Amino acid sequence: MSTSSGSDDGEVWLVRHGETEWSRSGRHTSTTDLPLLPDGEEVARGLGERLEGRSFGLVLTSPRQRARRTAELAGFPDAEVDEDLAEWAYGDYEGITTDQIRETVPGWTVWDGPCPNGETAAQVGERLDRVIARLEAADGPSLVFAHGHSLRVLTARWLGLPPRDGRLFRLGTATVSVLAHERESPVVLRWNS
């Protein structure tokens, strides 16, 4: 990966998928393969204008249809599916909100868990470390289409932080963020734009 200041060779562009019914209502969505809402599709098409004219050496997407469809609508129908980009597996908390979970587990957060029958932050971090290794080996800038929590963990790991520090990076639907290097240091170049 390029470590020179001012070069975009090693940039990693992150795109969170467009809005779904569950992302709109705050329900934890991992394995449930929901489609984009019509508004989510429209915004995903708009992402294409923001990415147009850029060349990427590697384009990856989560296997979930909401990420794959966002990639397609943004102009990247041939994005390579990478299972490691799937959203955090919420287990028994799939389809419910944090407020609902906190009715029985006061103060619960996904970052500190647990997610019964789901993944821990460390497990999600292990998956995304593999993605980062692929991104670092890519020729030129990379583009990744994925999910709120998984992209936040990827960012924490990019910066050398523990997976749970993904909590520090709020990320909206259909947003573009850019990770890069400034000399030897991994940095966030743009976030949640």
From TrEMBL:
Substrate binds at residues 66, 87-90. CDD domains: HP_PGM_like. InterPro entries: His_Pase_superF_clade-1, His_PPase_superfam, PGM_Phosphatase. Transmembrane segments: none annotated. GO terms for biological process: regulation of phosphorelay signal transduction system. GO terms for molecular function: protein histidine phosphatase activity. The active site is at residues 17, 87. This is Histidine phosphatase family protein.
